[in-house]
Each structure stands twice: as structure tokens, then as C-alpha cells.
Design a protein that fits this description.
By secondary structure, this protein is of the alpha/beta class. 42% of the residues lie in helices and 14% in strands. The chain starts with 8 loop residues before the first strand and ends with a helix.
Length: 263
């Protein structure tokens, strides 16, 4: 099989931060900052994941100003339409031209009791509507002690990919739950070990071609000071950035890891 070059992907998950007016200002400043720095968006893709209420404003800005930024939603319903108060259909995200949607983030799994079955259904819903799912997997400190580093993420990904077509576009994000917001990131070696195991799951579930093209991100206390170490690893193709994605300068520096830190 010919070698596949995967475009690095830096994704900013804003979580429940920034209203639609703040989102407009942030996206403008981020785009200007990266363009001023001559960032090559074809070499490193950059996307933001605002709250639902911001998405229309971000879409309008990106479209009107032809900004080279991607964007996506933080969740999607497993249902297409109907009596599901508060839910957001993948059809709605598609109409907003969302390229991506985060599915199964550890906060959704923990705070909203989302099971592997729910994550699987949401993955199918996103793909049905042409939105690329960013499937989050990861283990807690307790899981790590009990099962080792890759057992839980591997099982979560296997469940999410069941029945997914081999030509489907997906992104996988490995988030060690014990590292999120702790300031204590996994080491690049730890991230690589799990990412390699996840790529094996993709091979088994979707085939070698899919495994070669699918991007695997690391998430959990990512900063401009540690991103280059992760990006040196052969199976780590980017980062799902949390808190640091709310700081334009810091997030820009993470996206520009090739320039400000040698790789």
C-alpha cells in the first residue's frame, strides 16, 4: 500500500464558552493571527468547535470573509427530527456547513451518561448527514490502573465503528480523562502507544486504506509548549485542544507548532 500523508489537524473545543458575539471576534482574530503569520492551512488544518448558538454566526463569517478555518459542533442527536426537545439533528449541522462534530467527549459520557451504544448511534447520524465525526475515546485514572492504557479506548472505538462503511471519513480523538484540565498531559510515548492501538482497531474495523488516511488526535492539557512532542509521534496526527483553544495567541501557536518549535 502506498504511503498516505495525513494532514495534521488542530481542533479547538470551546466547550460552554463564548457567546455568538464573542465567537465572531475570536474567529476574526484567530484567522488574522494565523494569516499574518503566513500559516499554511493546507499543511496544518485548523478548526474550532463553538457552542450550538454560535454556529450560524461562525458560518456566516467564514463564508463571507472566505476564511480558511474549519468549524464543527460539539454534539449531535442520534435522531433526525421529531419530539426530542433540546436535541440538534445532523441535518441542521449539515445545513450550517459544519465539517465536523465531536461525539462521545468524556464530559458527555460522564455528565450525560452517554454509553458506547449512544456514541455509535451518533456516529452513524453524523455520517448519514455528511458531517465528519470526531469520535472521542479515553480512560479514567481508575480505568488506567485496572485495565492499562489502551484497553478502554480500544473497546470504545471498536463499538463506535461497528457497521461504519470502509470509505467513511472519521477522526478519532484519544483523550486520557485523567489528563483533561489537569495540567498533566500524557507523555508523547503514552499517546503514541494508544494511538497505535487505535489505528489497529481502524484497520480491523474499516480496512487498511481507512487506517492509513484516518487522523488520530491527542487531547488532554495540550499547550504550545508540548504540542511538538506529540506531533513527532508517527500515529498522532493532531490535537483536540480544550482550555488553550480559548486563548487566540496560545491556540495560534499550537496550530503553528512546525514554525515556533522544531519538529
Amino acid at each position: 500500500m502506498a504511503a498516505v500523508t495525513r494532514t495534521p489537524f488542530i481542533a479547538g473545543n470551546w466547550k460552554m464558552n463564548l457567546d455568538h458575539l464573542q465567537a465572531i471576534a475570536f474567529v476574526q482574530k484567530l484567522a488574522w493571527s494565523l494569516q499574518d503569520a503566513k500559516h499554511d492551512f493546507d499543511a496544518v488544518e485548523v478548526a474550532v468547535f463553538p457552542p450550538f448558538t454560535d454556529l450560524r454566526s461562525v458560518q456566516t463569517l467564514v463564508s463571507a470573509d472566505k476564511l480558511p478555518l474549519g468549524y464543527g459542533a460539539q454534539d449531535v442527536s442520534a435522531q433526525d427530527s421529531g419530539a426530542f426537545t433540546g436535541e440538534i439533528s445532523g441535518a441542521f449541522l449539515s445545513q450550517l456547513e459544519c465539517g465536523y462534530v465531536i461525539i462521545g467527549h468524556s464530559e458527555r459520557r460522564t455528565l450525560h451518561n452517554e454509553t458506547d451504544d449512544v456514541v455509535h448511534a451518533k456516529t452513524a447520524a453524523a455520517l448519514k448527514h455528511g458531517v465528519t465525526p470526531v469520535i472521542c475515546v479515553g480512560e479514567t485514572a481508575e480505568d488506567l490502573e485496572k485495565h492499562g492504557s489502551s484497553a478502554v479506548p480500544v473497546a470504545q472505538l471498536r463499538a463506535a465503528l461497528e457497521g461504519v462503511a470502509s470509505d467513511a471519513d472519521v477522526v478519532v480523538a484519544y483523550e486520557p480523562v485523567w489528563a483533561i484540565g489537569s495540567g498533566q498531559a500524557a507523555t508523547p510515548d503514552q499517546a503514541e502507544q494508544v494511538a497505535a492501538a487505535l489505528r489497529t482497531v481502524i484497520t480491523e474495523s474499516l480496512g487498511e486504506d481507512a487506517a492509513g488516511r484516518t487522523r488520530i488526535l491527542y487531547g488532554g492539557s495540550v499547550k504550545s509548549g508540548n504540542i511538538a512532542g506529540f506531533m513527532r509521534e508517527p500515529n498522532v496526527d493532531g490535537a483536540l485542544v480544550g482550555g488553550a483553544s480559548l486563548d487566540v495567541t496560545e491556540f495560534s501557536n499550537i496550530a503553528r507548532y512546525q514554525k515556533h518549535v522544531g519538529v
